[in-house]
Design brief:
The complex is a heterodimer of chains A (about 90) and B (about 1000).
Chain A: E1 2-5, E2 9-12, E3 17-21, H1 35-44, E4 52-58, E5 66-72, E6 78-83, H2 84-91
Antiparallel strand pairs in A: 1-2, 3-4, 4-5, 5-6
Chain B: E1 10-19, E2 22-28, H1 32-38, E3 45-46, E4 53-54, E5 67-70, E6 77-81, E7 91-94, H2 109-112, H3 121-124, H4 132-144, E8 159-164, E9 168-171, H5 175-186, E10 191-194, E11 210-211, E12 214-215, H6 216-229, E13 233-236, E14 239-244, E15 249-255, E16 269-275, E17 278-281, E18 285-287, E19 300-302, H7 303-311, E20 325-329, H8 332-343, E21 348-353, E22 366-368, E23 370-376, E24 383-388, E25 391-396, E26 399-403, E27 406-408, E28 421-423, E29 428-430, E30 439-441, H9 451-468, E31 501-503, E32 508-509, H10 510-518, H11 524-531, H12 544-555, H13 559-562, H14 576-580, E33 592-593, H15 597-602, E34 606-610, E35 613-618, H16 627-640, E36 643-646, E37 651-656, H17 660-667, E38 679-686, E39 692-702, E40 705-710, H18 715-729, E41 736-739, E42 744-750, H19 754-759, E43 777-782, E44 786-791, E45 800-806, H20 810-820, E46 827-828, H21 831-841, H22 873-876, H23 879-882, E47 886-893, E48 905-908, E49 918-928, E50 933-941, E51 950-955, E52 960-967
Parallel strand pairs in B: 1-7, 8-16, 9-10, 9-17, 10-13, 17-30, 19-26, 20-21, 20-26, 21-22, 33-35, 36-46
Antiparallel strand pairs in B: 1-2, 3-4, 5-6, 5-7, 11-12, 14-15, 15-16, 18-27, 23-24, 24-25, 28-29, 31-32, 34-35, 36-42, 37-40, 37-41, 38-39, 39-40, 42-45, 43-44, 44-45, 47-50, 47-52, 48-49, 48-51, 49-50, 51-52
């Protein structure tokens, strides 16, 4: 696969390490009322859809950016790739 | 020799080869198959199940029958298709799958018992007694039904890999592929043209078609010459594109030196990864046959293959030259073979055409509305039975060509679920034009099979592909070529009682398909698995569509309703050696060498692989016989004097920025942000699920500048996780990270004389305990100006330091320390002594931080700060983790001569040894030279309250139980006075 790195252009997927569901970025509030339950969901429950999926890739053999890649897990079509930093700032 | 006139072989270059030990001669340009046929050798192998005599069936990589073991010794390669092996001088080949000689195969007996070996036989028979399957039935079946054998020796060849990034990849160098490459090449595009053959031209080499008043093969040669002259075009012959992968990536194998008798130092094959902006699939088509009774005899082959042997290799397939040849067809293409043979003066019986109104296209006889209903000839075709108008007649026949129509080679187009579409006029599956993004399909592969169609389609596809990537090509001048007749009728097999083979390689007959239907194995997926149709090296290239047609007939459905055949990579078999691409032996994975590696090697160190690192395990002295003598000496030297150990492999992460302190507080479970410049603090990292993850130190070199150390194993992972935290969780913290593991050589200098040793190399630096106490750090210079970092930390429990210098000075620093410390008894020590020292001190390492343990179990629960959030803090407070009563403690054997074995389970004395009574386990163990016995660390239920109790360390795997006494994990200096001294 080729991943369209927002800074470096098309890069081979072999340069990346895969983590999984981009919901990993939504770390719960540790001071929230049900923090423990929220953390259990956050740590143990993942979506694994056949279809469009937002997922985290680390450009380990490259510029060490974490990317949020939107990919169709059936066709492997990549719909977008963004810097995780940008996504995290936007969501915050 | 049954050579005829013409052909593309070089008769002046004779090549010697052997088949089953017997010497033969062929010509340059031959394949092994054409050379054997030229020598009148029809019988080449035995079939998979029934051991029926088999000969050459095709002229390409679709070959189901003529499989041989190539070469001998370690280079022996089984199941190689004789039709694709380029002949070279000295080639050795042997037939396979027989006991005794090829012509008197003892297992031919299987053929008589064929009713027992029908489809699915192994699911039905050999069921009882159950134990016999593994010991008797399966080995016997494997022996009888098999293909070639491996040499069982290491592969002596070398392999390579390469990467290409063309604008356009053209797969297949026939009429369509050449025209596409020419169009794109002339337009200046970067083009790669790959073809599995050793000559470009595809079917043009096998036909007598004219293009632009030239013979097709001559036109192909002219185009090849022009393409070779274009610097932007790369021609890759002997290269099979075997798979289509995501985003325009294709896998290909180039057979670099398989065709050279003595390849010397050349690699054997190269694995190419081709990332193309656009791709043209111009893979042509494969002919299918028409099953009839006993249609598998040597001498019966595809009609198009027969034409190829005549036109390209100047050979006809009879055992005896001059024996007449017949053609069996349901379409016009069969007549082209008759015409080609007639033009070369080959004796012909004529064409048996299933179509009622069929007429001859030339000077030969045509039996219209006729079929073939049988054949004779045990080891080679002798006669055929022609049935016409209710009568049948046996006639002598030296060879028979069978023409059942052509199937486009859709394989790569279906590697991504692309489903071919049935074309009811052409009676074949054609690929879906949108099967794969970026892929254009041209020529016979798209069902555009006449020469004129293929040329025009290749040019069209190239123009379309280039325009999609913003390149323009001048409209190609398409050369004049003939429109061959392509009429065909649906005639799939000759009905009859005898066995009519559909899939030759797997011995699947029409009867087997009927049986599968009768047993309700009707979906194509079931049909395939019940009968083994379409499996093994040829993947049913000549069989699948015919089998579908037979099943369609049985179910009364249409062919597209019955199913379709799609394919997975690889297109043809690929050797595992080339898939490794040379990454074998020493190249299996890279070795990382420590900065002091050269020095350690010169000292005769024994090395151990730690991840990718090669670390010195111990340094044997000449008089030391057993490894433990060396390790005990090294460990003692540290406790008594001073030792030096390379600890570069521990991860180092440089953390800088105004928010670095806050960032570290969130990474570490304990409070880290308060560590002051010039100080070092021990830190524990948790996983987000609350379990212990990694430990190390964090040194504050200056305000907002920290160096984090990690364990060797987790160096990369901790860095990755910290980047995740920085970028994905807390992007607003102003902090930057970089891994400096390889930038700094770091040496541990440990022992009561370590201060004295280091004071001899530092430049004007106060080493006193007051000026530089335990857990201090500083930047300084050593050895007269060399930049260095000094940390007063201790893994061994002794007065100790770690000193870091730029990596390139690591070896020199080691040499200097050894040189200036001779009078102090300075001793290099390896990872084994390092382990002994830390176990004696009770320091946790990888064995204690194995992912199942918690801060609680390590006795560090109080380190998990309640004043702040950090990764894992919330979940570390879960009831199950807080309530865990196992604690890290030390163990010594009650009988000092007994060993302590890591992994042993701990059981309270008197309790049964079972999981229910499991009280914990031993994590680390070693022989302690200071205590004079084995010692261990381990987790024990309520361990911190059980000192002096005797427990059982059970090792049921080896049937051993040892009584251990529970002690403090700090075997040495429990008060920690030495390291603060």
């Amino acid at each position: 696969m080729l991943i369209p790195h927002p800074l470096l252009g098309l890069r081979d997927a072999q340069e990346f390490t895969y983590l999984g569901d981009a919901n990993m970025m939504a770390r719960p509030d540790p001071t929230g009322p049900d923090a423990e339950a929220a953390f259990c969901d956050y740590v143990f429950l993942r979506d694994n859809p056949a279809g469009v999926h937002r997922e985290l890739w680390f450009h380990e053999q490259g510029d060490r950016s974490w990317l949020v890649v939107t990919r169709n897990t059936v066709t492997h079509e990549i719909l977008s790739a963004e810097l995780a930093t940008d996504v995290a700032r936007k969501d915050a | 020799m049954s050579r005829i006139q013409g052909g593309l072989i070089d008769r002046s270059r004779k090549l010697s080869f052997t088949f089953n030990g017997k010497p033969y001669q062929g010509c340059a340009g031959d394949t092994l198959a054409s050379a054997l046929l030229a020598n009148g050798v029809q019988l080449i192998g035995r079939s998979f199940k029934y051991h029926r005599p088999r000969g050459v069936f095709s002229a390409g990589s679709e070959e189901p029958n003529a499989l041989v073991e190539l070469s001998g010794g370690a280079r022996q390669e089984p199941n190689t298709r004789a039709t694709g092996i380029e002949l070279y001088d000295g080639l050795q080949a042997n037939s396979q799958n027989h006991i005794g000689s090829l012509s008197h195969d003892l297992l031919a007996l299987n053929d008589l018992f064929s009713p027992f070996f029908a489809a699915g036989f192994y699911y039905k028979t050999f069921m009882w007694p159950r134990a016999f399957w593994e010991k008797l039935y399966e080995p016997a079946i494997r022996r009888a039904a098999g293909l070639g054998a491996l040499s069982m020796l290491p592969d002596p060849d070398s392999y390579d890999r390469g990467y290409l990034h063309p604008d356009l990849l053209v797969i297949g160098g026939g009429a369509a592929g050449l025209m596409a490459a020419l169009t794109a090449g002339r337009a200046g595009a970067q083009v790669v043209l790959a073809d599995e053959d050793f000559m470009l031209g595809g079917r043009l080499l096998a036909e007598d078609t004219a293009i632009a008043d030239l013979p097709g093969a001559a036109w192909a040669k002219e185009v090849t010459t022009e393409l070779q002259s274009l610097p932007n075009v790369r021609l890759m012959t002997r290269t099979t594109v075997f798979g289509a992968y995501d985003h325009g990536i294709y896998g290909a194998v180039e057979r670099v030196s398989d065709h050279i008798a003595d390849p010397g130092a050349s690699v054997r094959q190269t694995l190419w990864r081709i990332t193309a902006k656009r791709t043209i699939l111009a893979t042509g088509a494969t002919e299918r046959h028409i099953p009839f009774e006993n249609n598998d005899r040597p001498g019966i082959m595809l009609s198009g293959a027969m034409r190829a042997y005549a036109n390209r290799w100047a050979v006809t397939p009879q055992a005896k030259a001059g024996d007449p040849i017949a053609i069996f067809t349901n379409n016009d293409d069969g007549h082209r073979t008759a015409l080609a043979l007639a033009a070369k003066g080959v004796a012909l019986h004529g064409v048996i055409d299933t179509r009622a109104g069929a007429k001859s296209l030339g000077d030969y006889e045509t039996f219209a509305g006729a079929t073939i209903t049988g054949s004779k000839g045990r080891k080679g075709l002798k006669s055929i039975r022609i049935a016409q108008a209710g009568r049948s007649e046996w006639i002598d026949c030296g060879a028979l060509g069978v023409a059942g129509g052509w199937n486009p080679n859709v394989h790569l187009a279906s590697h991504h679920r692309g489903r071919p579409v049935w074309d009811a006029d052409k009676l074949t599956f054609v690929p879906d034009a949108d099967s794969l993004p970026g892929l254009h399909i041209a020529g016979a592969a798209a069902g555009q099979g006449t020469t004129a169609e293929a040329l025009a389609d290749g040019a069209r596809a190239a123009m379309a592909a280039l325009s999609e990537i913003g390149l323009s090509a001048a409209p190609a001048d398409i050369p004049r070529a003939g429109e061959e007749p392509t009429g065909i009728e649906a005639f799939w097999h000759v009905p009859g009682k005898g066995r009519a083979w559909v899939d030759f390689q797997n011995d699947v007959t029409v009867k087997d398909i009927k049986l599968a239907h009768q047993e309700n194995m009707r979906p194509v997926e079931h049909l395939k698995r019940w009968t083994t149709l379409g499996m093994a090296t040829d993947q049913g290239k000549t069989a699948n569509v015919t089998a579908l047609a037979v099943m369609a007939e049985l179910t009364g459905k249409t062919i597209p309703e019955t199913g379709t055949t799609i394919f997975r990579p690889p297109y043809t078999p690929v050797s595992l050696g080339v898939l490794g691409g040379g990454d074998s032996g020493a190249n299996f994975r890279p070795h990382r060498l420590t900065p002091t590696h050269a020095w350690a090697e010169s000292q005769g160190a024994v090395f151990v692989e730690v991840g990718q690192w090669m670390r010195a395990q111990w340094f044997p002295q000449p008089d030391e016989i057993h490894w433990r003598e060396s390790v005990d000496r090294e460990a003692k030297a540290v406790r008594d004097a001073v030792g030096v150990c390379d600890v570069t492999t521990l991860g180092k992460i440089d953390v800088q920025g105004p928010d670095a302190a806050e960032f570290l507080n969130r990474i570490y479970a304990n409070m880290m942000g308060t560590v002051k410049p010039g100080k070092v603090r021990y830190g524990l990292m948790l996983r987000e699920d609350g379990h212990a993850y990694d430990d190390g130190t964090c040194a504050c070199l200056a305000e907002g500048h920290y160096v984090v150390t990690t364990t060797t194993a987790n160096a990369g992972l901790v860095y990755q996780r910290m980047e995740f935290a920085r970028q994905c969780l807390w992007p607003d913290l102003d902090v930057t990270l970089i891994s400096t593991t390889d930038a700094w050589a770091q040496l541990a200098v440990a022992g009561p004389k370590s201060r004295e040793l280091l004071s001899r190399i530092v430049d004007d630096f106060d080493m006193s305990n007051d000026a530089f106490p335990f857990m201090s750090c500083s930047e300084l210079t050593v050895c007269g100006g060399l930049r260095a970092r000094l940390f007063r930390i201790s893994f061994s429990g002794e007065l100790a330091y770690e000193i870091a210098v730029p990596a390139r000075y690591g070896n020199a620093l080691m040499e200097r320390l050894i040189e200036v410390g001779q009078d102090l008894g300075v001793t290099p020590y390896g990872t084994e002594a390092l382990g002994v020292l830390r176990i004696e001190k009770g320091h946790a390492a990888g064995n204690e931080l194995n992912g199942q343990t918690t801060a609680n179990m390590l006795g560090m629960q109080r380190m998990v700060s309640l004043k702040k959030d950090s990764i894992g803090a919330v979940m570390s407070r879960r009831e199950g983790l807080i309530g865990d009563k196992r604690r890290l403690v030390g163990f010594v054997p009650v009988d000092a001569t007994q060993p302590v074995v890591a992994g042993s389970h701990l059981i309270t004395q008197g309790d049964p040894v079972d999981m229910e009574h499991d009280q914990g386990w031993i994590t680390s163990a070693c022989y302690s030279p200071h205590l004079g016995s084995a010692i261990g660390l381990g987790y024990l239920e309520n361990g911190d309250q059980r000192f002096d109790e005797e427990v059982i360390a059970a090792n049921p795997l080896e049937g051993v139980s040892v009584r251990l006494r529970v002690v403090s994990p700090h075997f040495i200096d429990p008060e920690g006075e030495r390291l603060r001294d």
